[in-house]
Design goal:
Helix content of chain A: over 70%
Distance between the termini of chain A: 35 Å
Helix content of chain B: 25-40%
Shape of chain B: globular
Strand content of chain A: under 5%
Oligomer: heterodimer
Order of helices and strands of chain B: EEEHEEHEHHHEHEHEEHH
Bound molecules: adenosine-5'-triphosphate, magnesium ion
CATH superfamily of the domain at 62-89 and 146-359 in chain A: MetI-like
Radius of gyration of chain A: 26 Å
CATH class of the domain at 62-89 and 146-359 in chain A: Mainly Alpha
Number of strands of chain B: 10
Largest sheet of chain B: 6 strands, mixed
Number of helices of chain A: 15
Chain lengths: 361, 253
């Protein structure tokens, strides 16, 4: 006999009151925590809001900001945002880095769509990046040349990160494959590389890239400082990414490779179509973690004299007229970093959900 | 001594004095066996006797260290071309299915024809659908392996191997990971395949299946072939004491 379908018990039906009861006051310690947090918010939020908005100075000069009782000095950001964003890039040419960044962001957004993944997109990457670089550099199509030592701010951070990860990722995958390969020489080489690079701080790698790369080259060849930093960053990130990818490779059951071999697929076919798609999907969270870390680590290039986003903002603070507004400067930079990192994080969650659809084991 | 019998029909697989070691462990000892085209061989023996290792040597999932293996006259040596040629012609079905979980059933089946045989995609799909029909699951083509039952997955694995149009099929305990009610659906497909004239080497303890389709049963113990005989003879009158003991255990339940 069929049993009649019953309505769900009252607890499952949700009303706002129910929600509050269940989530905020379900037990005595939960209630206590809720009250403590409310109390903390009660004391902190008004002051913060007053500083951020209420008493904030939106325009005018530094004197207005230094007035008694003034809040955040957004006038500083209004005055210095261009310098923070673009560094020492010539002001009348700012449209060029802007366009270059739009190109790169467009490329990233396009790459985010899984339906577009494929060879054309892969070929588009170097094209767009070269185009963006050319736009920044100039010297063609009547564009005035802007040497790389004038580049700075967000375009520099974005460029170092995107080009860096774009090169470090494939290199990292190759290193991971090498480290797990059956060929002892390969395995040893990759292992030594990874361990060496991981055992050294990024700062020293940047210094070494900056100082040592010229030693390997003929006297009359000079490598641009930016390029040297970029090479150092790529070599560094590749080692970390390799270890993340290796974690994924090791999680793939041996039977997968055996089945693919038995079907006659070659090593590269197996790797590309069976092993890597599964391995990479498994390591999306740590992979994105590494990406985000790397994006922020690029700010270390400041120690070899490059003015990235953070460096440019700091340097804006050295203007004698505007000395002392670090909170505003750092907040401004933090918000920009956060936007990029949070977008990446959200995207990775979305990608994970998509890739796991219908693929329970 | 390894048993060896002369057989009518051209030999398609020839194993001659095959030896293999895992480190110091001698896992295959002087194994010689000749399989004729269209012949069905069932391999049985106690756990750890080297059955899996033996059939995995035939498509080079394992490497043997002494003796020779020839498939269609092509020697299995370190020449990649030989290995590739043999793998194209030898299909394999595993105990644990080993379907590719990130690909749909249809993609599992078309992968090798498209990439190894360079077959146009539409042609490969038509082929795959034909074989999925043959293993009686045409309606599952667009699902992922994780959404199928064990018996269905194993039938997909068989279809996937058949899509390469092999002339030899290797089965390594294809039904021993399955729930009892699914064993029959897979065995039915295998009987079907046997009746179609496929050359088959099958490691299994399904003695009903062996009795029904096997031309010869190979009994292995401790890395060597102890006895080779047609099922009627082996079941009725095993010559070797070890075979007798093993059969009494397998047939008693
Ligand atoms: N990669 C390996 N390294 C070392 N020893 C191995 C390896 N693979 C198998 N062996 C050993 O070789 C022997 C034969 O293994 P094999 O898998 O061929 O046995 P089998 O007859 O298929 O057994 P089963 O019925 O349990 O599947 C076993 O003793 C096993 O422990
Ligand atoms: Mg086995």
């Amino acid at each position: 006999m069929d049993r009649p379908a019953l309505p769900p018990p009252a607890a499952l039906r949700s009303s706002p009151l129910h929600w509050v009861r269940r989530n905020l006051f379900s037990t005595w310690y939960n209630s206590l925590l809720t009250l403590l947090i409310l109390a903390a918010a009660w004391t902190l939020v008004p002051g913060l809001a007053a500083w951020l908005v209420g008493h904030a100075v939106w325009s005018g000069d530094a004197a207005a900001c230094r007035a008694e009782g003034a809040g955040a000095c957004w006038a500083f950001v209004a005055e210095k945002w261009r310098f923070s964003l673009f560094g020492t890039y010539p002001v009348e040419q700012h449209w060029r880095p802007t366009l270059a960044m739009l190109l790169v962001v467009g490329l990233l957004l396009g790459s985010a769509d899984r339906r577009l993944w494929g060879r054309p997109l892969l070929l588009l990457w170097p094209v767009v990046l070269l185009l963006a670089g050319l736009l920044m550099q100039g010297g063609v199509l009547g564009l005035e040349t802007v040497p790389t030592y004038l580049w700075g701010g967000l375009p520099l951070t974005l460029g170092l990160s995107v080009v860096g990860l774009g090169l470090a990722f494939p290199l990292g995958v190759l290193l991971a494959l090498g480290r797990t390969s059956a060929m002892p020489v390969f395995r040893a080489l990759c292992t030594v590389y990874i361990e060496l690079v991981r055992g050294v701080p990024l700062i020293s790698i940047l210094f070494m890239a900056s100082v040592m790369i010229p030693l390997f080259l003929p006297q009359d060849v000079t490598v641009d400082k930016l390029l040297r930093a970029q090479i150092g960053l790529v070599l560094f990130a590749a080692a970390y990414l390799a270890e993340v990818v290796r974690g994924g490779l090791q999680a793939i059951p041996k039977g997968q490779v055996e089945a693919a071999s038995a079907l006659g697929l070659s090593y590269w076919q197996r790797t590309r179509m069976i092993v890597l798609p599964q391995a990479l999907a498994l390591v999306i969270p740590p992979l994105v973690n590494t990406f985000i870390g790397f994006f922020k680590d690029t700010s270390l290039v400041v120690i070899i004299g490059l003015l990235d986003l953070l460096g440019a903002a700091k340097s804006a603070l050295t203007d004698p007229a505007w000395r002392g507004f670090y909170r505003e400067a750092y907040l401004f930079v933090a918000v920009i970093y956060f936007i990029f990192c949070y977008a990446l994080s959200r995207y990775s969650r979305h990608l994970e959900a998509q890739l796991s659809k219908g693929r329970r084991r | 001594m390894p048993a060896r019998e002369a057989h009518p029909g051209e030999p398609i697989i020839e194993l001659d004095g095959v030896n293999k070691w895992y480190g110091a462990f001698h896992v295959l000892r002087d194994v010689s066996l000749s399989v004729a085209k269209g012949e069905k061989i069932v391999i049985c023996g106690p756990s750890g006797s080297g059955k899996s290792t033996l059939i995995r040597c035939i498509n080079r999932l394992e490497e043997h260290q002494a003796g020779s293996i020839r498939v269609h006259g092509v020697p299995l040596d370190n020449d990649i071309k030989h290995i590739d040629a043999i793998r194209r012609d030898v299909g394999m079905v595993f105990q644990s299915f080993n379907l590719f979980p990130h690909l749909t059933v249809l993609e599992n089946c078309t992968l090798a024809p498209v990439w190894v045989k360079k077959m146009p995609k539409s042609e490969a799909e038509a082929l795959a659908r034909r074989f999925l029909e043959r293993v009686r699951i045409p309606e599952q083509a667009d699902k992922y392996p994780g959404q199928l039952s064990g018996g269905q997955q194993q039938r997909v694995a068989i279809a996937r191997a058949l899509c390469m149009n092999p002339s030899i099929m290797l089965f390594d305990e294809p039904t021993s990971a399955l729930d009892p009610e699914m064993v029959k659906e897979v065995l039915d497909v295998m009987v079907d395949l046997a009746e179609g004239g496929m050359t088959m080497l099958c490691v299994t303890h399904e003695m009903g299946f062996a009795r029904r389709v096997a031309d010869r049963i190979v009994f292995m113990d401790r890395g060597e072939i102890v006895e080779v005989a047609p099922p009627e003879q082996l079941f009725a009158d095993p010559r070797n004491e070890r075979t007798r003991l093993f059969l009494s255990q397998v047939l008693s339940h």
